């Protein structure tokens, strides 16, 4: 399947990040991406990149091969009712909304199109997202198209739909949790004598290196921790103090709190 046009309905943070990622990391031209937002003037930065922008959702989806729905869950029904009559027969719908399952998407879009839920994170803008996807009413070829599209934007994992709420917390919310760690490490670095910019650079690269050890080395966190924790050493002393203060516990509780909020929103 050749992709000639991509529509992104909802040019907020995530929708805009996907648009930037697509034109920077794939062969898709900026002119073939159409991003909409009610206040289209807020899309000026995308326009400067050559991306087509506006507030007309029908114009955006007309003849689009891929239609991203990057809107709030409460807006989904209204948006699908508006755009479904204008969708191309072979259009693939990809929802980025939390809490709207594929069965609902299929019903709201008339049951004629393949639908996918996708949960990337904002690192999609630089081609470093972790994206989880699940589909319904889709052929193997259509699934491969969606997977290939997101592979240009980072790592992709196809998962059962019942895990999508968890993927939202671990990948999408998770990037904020990781950034908060980097921010805290930076503040600690300032307190022990570094300037803020240098502390941030050191903390950021250290986290990047730690992630690469696991991804490229196919290693386990504890195995890598053991390599730098010597008897009576400074690393183990710091780690133990963090655990005494509830480091791992508070992170797990934060993940569970975010997850419960999604689950409670379904009721």
TrEMBL record:
Documented EC number(s): 1.5.1.2
Domain Pyrroline-5-carboxylate reductase catalytic N-terminal: 5-98
Pathway assigned in UniProt: Amino-acid biosynthesis; L-proline biosynthesis; L-proline from L-glutamate 5-semialdehyde: step 1/1
Domain Pyrroline-5-carboxylate reductase dimerisation: 161-262
Cellular component terms (Gene Ontology): cytoplasm
Localisation: Cytoplasm
Pfam families membership: F420_oxidored, P5CR_dimer
Catalysed reactions listed for this entry: L-proline + NAD(+) = (S)-1-pyrroline-5-carboxylate + NADH + 2 H(+); L-proline + NADP(+) = (S)-1-pyrroline-5-carboxylate + NADPH + 2 H(+)
Residues that coordinate or bind NADPH: 57
The name this protein goes by in its record: Pyrroline-5-carboxylate reductase
Binding site for NADP(+): 9-14, 70-73
NCBIfam families the record matches: proC (TIGR00112)
